[in-house]
Protein: Nucleoside diphosphate-linked moiety X motif 6
Organism: Geotrypetes seraphini
Amino acid sequence: MPVGMLTQTSIRCWASGVPIYCRTPWCRVPKLSLSMSLQKHSPHSFLPLEALLDKFGGVTVHLPQELPTAHEGAFQSWLQESIKQWKAEGRAAVWMHIPILQSRFIAVAAAEGFTFHHAELDTSTLTLWLREGQSRLPGFATHQVGVAGAVLDVDTGKVLVVQDRNKATNAWKFPGGLSEPGEDIGNTAIREVFEETGIRSEFKSLLSIRQQHKHPGAFGKSDMYLICRLKPLTFSISFCPQECLKCEWMDLEKLAQMKDTTPITSRVANLLLYGFREGFEKIDLPMREFPAVYTGLFYKLYHRELPRTYQNGTGL
Amino acid sequence: MPVGMLTQTSIRCWASGVPIYCRTPWCRVPKLSLSMSLQKHSPHSFLPLEALLDKFGGVTVHLPQELPTAHEGAFQSWLQESIKQWKAEGRAAVWMHIPILQSRFIAVAAAEGFTFHHAELDTSTLTLWLREGQSRLPGFATHQVGVAGAVLDVDTGKVLVVQDRNKATNAWKFPGGLSEPGEDIGNTAIREVFEETGIRSEFKSLLSIRQQHKHPGAFGKSDMYLICRLKPLTFSISFCPQECLKCEWMDLEKLAQMKDTTPITSRVANLLLYGFREGFEKIDLPMREFPAVYTGLFYKLYHRELPRTYQNGTGL
């Protein structure tokens, strides 16, 4: 519904919206009240807290790294007073960024209704929805991304497979693992294949995408698992004994018929066999890179091959 | 390399590995020291902290919801002593789960080298790598997932497009937004299309996958953006004015040639035109559902159509 919709817009915009300094008088009051009460407990003077207003009606507060002897009581008074003010002003929500060494203030915020939005390394971000109904704030990342590489030697019809050491069942599968932050799908496949098997390879295409929720290895989040078709550049296996029980070049036909494997490996092995016999253009999702609307950024796009005649917008 | 490899195994297994109670005597000592020092400050008795050992050599500690008057000093002594012990025992890492109301202990842990792994709602999880070199612990979710719906009316050759209200440039695009936690790709597309435009639709296929890093709307994380082909079930537009500036059924050919759009919309419009004219089997990634290896779970798999003859493992 319309209501829900605003959420979805917000989702992408909340974080990208450049905050605007809030010039309304109510910002000053809590600022002063906190700085004064802090100064009572600290000889140092320090920058008073500023409440930044974003274009979605949200308020952002950054706790500084240094709040020498500020105590929770002073923070609680300021927060309670500020929340009253923000509600009176019709603000939608509060984002509060807290350095890990200032975490004693988290419980104070929680007592006022704040919850964790996310936390990473040395900072946590808490949020409080100020309006009626449930929060419309965007959530944090929901998926981990794993990538496997189906490395096929077209001269021999053999594909590179491994058996994990740390799995209950020793099913044959394609080597793979989780993406590092900021790593492209194809690069994850190439890195994982090399780390597990010692084989160097190059990206040819994307073959399949799997989405799975409540993944046991994803801290309760969802898992996106992609399999890429790779071309081997080297052939001599030197697999990682800590990770792999076995590693070999296996006849693709054998893998396609094998029972001793996972459903997805079997399915993609058959897809690969189809492409190997009748042309990879029947199974590939080629990749193209495009400039993003955000200056300087690029993205990679995967879809079925688009004939040249359809690339000029006419199809002629 | 092999070293790196272990990491990758760990990544999927850390969280899924069922913790085993640690029976070694060194666990008892810190437990007692903490419980005693806590009881000094609290009349209540409570369950002393237990260090759980996982099969990857990591230790997990859950701080209880109730630690009435336990002070940071007692926790710090226990933690320092425990870390010494864990290192002496050759443990790999520590996972510490802290209820939000106990967050005063986070700064204490941070002073001993802990950092945030993640946090959500009312709990934060901190980690400390105990061994040489950089941490091999698995990271948290790295991607948000956005889905758009290309709703094509095959009787008129018109496709449903919108202009966002909250964007600087008013480019025509397919309606879409971020996946809710645990929501399948196709369901996100259907929900988003309905919320933005009032049009009901059904999932036909996946058309494209885009991966983009450092996405401004993803709190510094990566963004996976998928476009699905949907079939309209209703045709009367009632768009969300808070989200959309405009919404209309536009000739697909016009959209494919239009300059006033985003590169990805233009690209997928041409792909859709190709499928509309020459057969959707040329552009579709159909979906199949499979049982996961984890009991009771299912996943959805998307790839090029696999001929029946290749579904029996023979290709014959």
About this structure: Chain B has two domains: 11-129, 143-282.
